[in-house]
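Ex. 9. Protein: Energy transducer TonB.
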Amino acid sequence: MTRILERWRLALAAAAGAATTLLPGCGSPPVPAQPPAATAATPPAVVPNPANVPAEVVQSGATAVTGVRASGAATARAYRADAASHVYGLNKDRIWKGRLPPLLYAIGTLQVDLDARGQVHGMHWMRKPSHAPEVVAEIERTVRAAAPYPAPARMGKVVWTDTWLWHKSGQFQLDTLTEGQD
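Predicted structure tokens for Energy transducer TonB:
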């Protein structure tokens, strides 16, 4: 009996050692050092401008004409949150509050080509809810009406891809900002 217990103890110790060796990144990530607080003498950081986005967009984060801010995202994936937040801001009364119900009326994944100024240059459905053509038309209308999007200052242009989670009431959530589903 003692031998069996000893074997189990050794097996558990070996498994624990293997787990810590194989999964070193599973712990909490290190907390990044906080940058020193900006002072009045410190100028604001300038976002690189490879796409010739208007200087007023890059420097101030907004244009006087449109009021659209510049996105500091460096990748299309990072840009998703800026674009989704922009759509939510313009459609507050159409956003489903809370967790979505288990059965949705339509789900569609749309790619939107945006230029350096945040204007829509094209759309491509990756997953089109073909059973609901009225939803397809409404999503496309909503995307066009939300232009201009935050200018992708660091990328020049971007393809924004997001999944639209559509309830039969006409309210929706975007996968990027979803509150989940029951």
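Check your answer against this statement. Confidence is low (pLDDT under 50) at residues 18-31, 35-66.
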